[in-house]
User: What shape does this take?
Amino acid sequence: MSPPTDLSGLTRSELEAEVTALRGEVAELKRLIAGLRDEIARFKGLKGRPSIKPSGMQDATEPRRGGKRGKRRGRGVVTPRVAPVTEVLRVAAPKGSKFRGYEPYQVQDLVLTARVVRYRRERWLTPLGETLVAPLPEGIRGHFGPELRRFVLMQYHEGQVTVERLVRLLQAAGVSISKRQVMRLLIAGQDEFLAEGREVLRAGLESAAWITVDDTGARHRGANAVCMQIGNDTFAWFGTTGSKSRLNFLELLRAGHTDYVVNDAALDYMREYALAGPVIQLLAAHERRQFADQAAWQDHLQRLGISALQVAPDPARVATEGALWGAVAEHGFLNEAVIVSDDAGQFNVGEHGLCWIHAERLVHKLETFTDQHYAAQQHVRGLIWWYYADLKAYCADPTSRRRSELRARFDRIFLHTTGFATLDRLLQRLHANKAELLMVLDHPKIPLHTNGSENDIRCQVTKRQVSGGTRTDIGRDCRDAFLGLGKTCKKLCVSFWDYLGARLGVAGAPAVPRLANLIRCRGQPA
Assistant: This one.
């Protein structure tokens, strides 16, 4: 259906009919586009978008605001982040008029123009035969200035603009630049930002009382990969690996270190994951406990004969995971901190808590076939929602009495028999995770969900949809680092624009402290 060319002659009812038909066509187009995206994801081997509607448990269990609901607040006065420039506008008043002051009117604008500076650098020949050349101004690296570099980084990472569109935008503004030069601005010479990204992760893991983790699909060098998120309310960090194994997760938790350590934490990990006693004794009795890199550690396992063992679970893998966990503890990371996840197996290390939103989602998405099944499902969901609201209240005011009551009530809910066999098996499975779901009773400060991680990692999903995958390791590392730094700046209430200006040496940019120092200050107890 195509709308008529002239709408002025239509009646109100005819216009409403046209709008209704157009809205139906838009909805159908959105449905078709979503289907095509899922089909493309399936061809690439990636997960499609889940068709599960959110349950609403988090919002529904928020305490209601007291008092009467007043009128909706307006936008208020716009306060610019930059100092305004005052200009006086005059008007020709008739003779005999009285001056009544000024009427303020504020306008925000943006000046975007290309600027080319040709520096004439003095050259001198010293009596010793050396040539002296006047240095370039601070912040100048290469043939593109710091303001241009900041704009490119901001548009690509924060604005999610593709390289092709960024090239066209710059060329339209008068900048003589190619796609290859834009790529160099994005990935070449970014060692300082990569180093600060590692500092952010180390500071976050050192000071965190808890972290939440999540992962999503990624593409690197034309193959499927996994991007993992680690963070809390003060920092966010991303790392892309080849798979979502626990080995890869533990390697990321070392925050750039490459060592393997056999200490008490490592040995406890090996015992927890059922490594044979003689193998543990062999590792514990050896005089060498620390290894610089993977090659040295693998050589050690071969010398002890552990790599040749053909049993399940694989002794070499469990021992390697334990040595990685030992290195995490050796560097002071995650000291008694709780890791909150969505029950993915690779994140189940150390003190581990589970997300209640994902647990309730299992009940929410359960298929029902009869009215009795549906009634049982809704009854159990109501009990879980009620219990979740009381967990929130406990976190705000924890007491030992309420802790005992909540533990007993958890058993009554998840050991309840409904007569719906599939639901009963699911409740038993959730009850088996009691210690992890009720981790919040012993640590009231940890979140009950991983919504923070899901919100953080959304930028990686958008980047994957907009720009596809990465082709080089340095491109992958820069993408992860800048997206993580941008999220960290937002959590620390630091303007990412100001942060880039301070690090790139933009003239007049405000000073921004090292993000790691801000994270450590935020993580210290009051």
In short: The radius of gyration is 30 Å. The first strand starts at residue 123 and ends at 125. The mean pLDDT is 90.
